[in-house]
Design a protein that fits this description.
InterPro entries: HCP/CODH, Hydroxylam_reduct, Prismane-like_a/b-sand, Prismane-like_sf, Prismane_a-bundle. Keywords: Cytoplasm, Iron, Iron-sulfur, Metal-binding, Oxidoreductase. This protein has 23 helices and 14 strands. The chain has 662 residues and is an alpha/beta fold. The chain has a 6-stranded parallel sheet. Helix 9 runs antiparallel to helix 10.
């Protein structure tokens, strides 16, 4: 109740911000307030778009049985101009226009835009079906979240996979239209492009028809029409940016929903919201900045439920995490490195490699796996290798075994390890072997056995490593497993430490990591913190500080650094903060607590919207604020929620302000 009530506390500030943004309209001019269409009322209140194709003004006669299909590789699109600003590293903090900083080509960027456009249509049909009592099959719901997830930064770079998904979306849409027709539901009236404020010649997303990969010229044209550039021109950069914030939040929430689904955890409400949000983006209500902000806050609430479901799914499958030391040093033997987020893939890999003389190491955000009883019971899960995702070209090249990428983040591989790199789930790279739904990792195992593995000759000298770590103040063993259950079990000690002055302040440092030099801010900040402070960390942002020796909180038995897990374990941090607030008879904003969050991709957008939904204020966000938000939008969100840009040039100044609760 306390968590849900926090939204009410944020409502006045949110209303003020949304009222200002609502007045901006296209190109900063004043717009008359549009008639807000309730997101629950669907798309039935407007006339059919003049751009709708004739055959979609009527119900189709064909019924397509939902099912997965495989497609041969398609020819790549010609290089074309692109515009993408969905991640923090976007070029010059404005947008990538020739090739993505992530390595995404213009053809892949265009196909991702077109897929999201198509999903707005499929989501609209799924939302309409739910409203009319027509069941949406689970594999369609799974496809919607999985396809959405595939467009997240550093997930899929394979254009053939996106062409296949566009075809599959078309088939699923036809199935839902046929199911609605069979139930006697009238064909919906769709708003026109003019009513949506769009330019270009694409029809409404629910009327869109994929032309097939044989007509690549048309696909190229449609891909350009589907991107954000035209909406920025017609709706104005502020409104278009807010719409993109909703889309990017959807990408993050869809990723977490898909992670949970892999563990056997599903929630009709989560799927329902994704469909509702896609339907909203194809309705005239999306022209109202206030309505868009409201939907963003609603997404924050829905994502909190998804993160809770994912946390509970992990605990149910693998047990509650417990504090566990993890070695950062390799041992002799054949080896496999697993990166990404999906713990069920690690479990399957451990089962298939058991007894084969292969050691398994985690990489990136798989590090928290070592804290789960159901995973650490496997003796050949021997340690962690490497750092955050952006170092993978260094880490994977140095690793003398096979590498399995389960989810983001992946990068286009060099020849040094391309032949021993494998992807699964939504990840995709051209020329890299993909492991499908069978989860048969025999090819990965064969590659590991064929490689040299760690030997005395290729392993670093232990004495030299120890000396280097001593000079840098770093550790060779780190401890993971400080989930909310563990932290709350010592809540009494934390409260006592605060009341007796032994604990002056708690910092949350985490989120996403990246390659920019400005991100050294987080390492510098941590080194400046007084010894009577504690740090909660999570996500791959932890790799800036995870191997520093923070020691124990003086006068207590509490470690100063607590690794709470993956980025989705922001849920655990929020649970801990909320429960501590109850003890101190305050809200989260009244605690001696500061959130200094680093962001990179769209999961971070979803987490940020969740924190705003819960009324959390004074969040520091860095190293740069999102490029998709205009200065005016940022100004209003800063005023409403007191979001602050991290002062990457002067971490000491930030520390002073945070210690003073600013």
């Amino acid at each position: 109740m306390a968590l849900q009530g926090a939204l009410n506390a944020a409502a006045p500030a949110l209303f003020a911000a949304s009222q200002h943004l609502m007045r901006l309209g296209a190109s900063g001019s004043v717009l008359p307030r549009s008639t807000t269409v309730s997101s629950s009322s669907g798309l039935l209140a407007r006339g059919i778009s003049s751009a709708s194709s004739d055959d979609k003004k009527k119900w189709p006669s064909v019924k397509v049985k939902p099912g997965l299909r495989s497609f041969a590789a398609q020819p790549a699109l010609d290089d074309t101009a692109m515009f993408c600003f969905q991640c923090e590293q976007t070029q010059d903090n404005k947008g990538c226009t020739t090739v993505g900083v992530c390595g995404k080509t213009p053809e892949v960027a265009g196909l991702q835009d077109l897929l999201i456009f198509s999903l707005k249509g499929l989501g609209g049909w799924a939302h309409l079906a739910t409203q009319n009592g027509v069941e949406v099959p689970q594999n369609i719901q799974s496809f919607i979240t999985g396809a959405t997830f595939s467009t997240l930064t550093n997930v899929n770079f394979d254009d053939a996979r996106f062409l296949a998904m566009l075809k599959e979306a078309e088939e699923y849409e036809a199935y839902l239209r046929a199911a609605l027709q069979a139930k006697g539901v009238a064909a919906p009236q769709l708003p026109s492009s003019a009513e949506l404020g769009w330019t270009g010649d694409l029809p409404h997303p629910m009327a869109y028809q994929y032309p097939g990969s044989s007509d690549m010229d048309l696909i190229r044209h449609q891909a350009k029409q589907a991107g954000v550039s035209l909406r920025r021109e017609s709706l104005g950069a502020t409104l278009a940016g807010l719409q993109e914030m909703l889309v990017y939040g959807l990408k993050g929430m869809a990723a977490y929903t898909h992670h949970a689904e892999a563990l056997g955890s599903t929630d009709p409400a989560a799927y329902g919201f994704v469909n509702e949000a896609y339907a909203f983006l194809g309705s005239p209500a999306s022209k109202d900045p206030a309505a868009v902000l409201g939907m963003c806050m609603k997404l924050g609430g829905a994502n909190f439920g998804v993160m809770k479901m994912l946390s509970e799914g992990h605990a149910r499958r693998f047990g509650t995490p417990t504090p566990t030391p993890v070695s950062l040093d390799p041992i002799e033997g054949k080896c496999i490195l697993i990166t990404g987020h999906d713990m069920h893939d690690l479990e399957t890999l451990l089962q298939q490699t058991e007894g084969k003389g292969i050691n398994v190491y985690t990489h990136g955000e798989m590090l928290p796996a070592h804290g789960y009883p159901g995973l650490k019971k496997y003796k050949h899960l021997v340690g962690h290798f490497g750092g955050a995702w952006y170092r993978q070209k260094i880490d994977f090249s140095a690793f003398p075994g096979a590498v399995l990428a389960t989810t983001n983040c992946v990068l286009d591989p060099p020849k040094a390890y391309k032949g021993r790199l494998f992807t699964t789930n939504e990840t995709g790279l051209k020329g890299v072997t993909h492991i499908g739904a069978t989860k048969d990792y025999s090819a990965v195992i064969a590659a590991a056995l064929a490689e040299e593995g760690f030997t005395k000759d290729n392993m670093p000298d232990p004495a030299e490593v120890a000396e280097e770590r001593a000079e840098e103040g770093k550790l060779g063993t780190v401890t993971v497993g400080f989930g909310h259950d563990v932290v709350l079990s010592v809540a009494g000690q934390v409260v006592d430490a605060v009341k007796t002055g032994k604990l002056e302040h708690i910092f949350v440092i985490g989120g996403c990591d990246g390659s920019e030099p400005q991100r050294k801010y987080y390492d510098k900040l941590a080194r400046l913190m007084p010894t009577n402070t504690m740090v909660l960390t999570l996500g791959c942002g932890k790799f800036r500080i995870f191997d520093q020796d923070f020691g124990m909180l003086p006068g207590t038995g509490l470690p100063r650094l607590l690794d709470m897990g993956q980025c989705n374990d922001a849920y655990s941090a929020l649970v801990v903060a909320t429960e501590l607030a109850k003890v101190f008879n305050t809200d989260v904003n009244g605690l001696p607590l500061s959130l200094d969050i680093s962001w990179f991709e769209q999961k971070a957008v979803a987490v940020l919207l969740t924190m705003l939904h819960l009324g959390v204020k004074n969040i520091r966000l860095g190293p740069r604020l999102p490029a998709f938000l205009t200065p005016d939008a940022v100004k209003q969100l800063v005023e409403a929620f007191e979001i602050k840009p991290a002062n990457t040039a002067d971490p000491a100044a930030d520390l002073k302000q945070m210690m003073a609760k600013h």
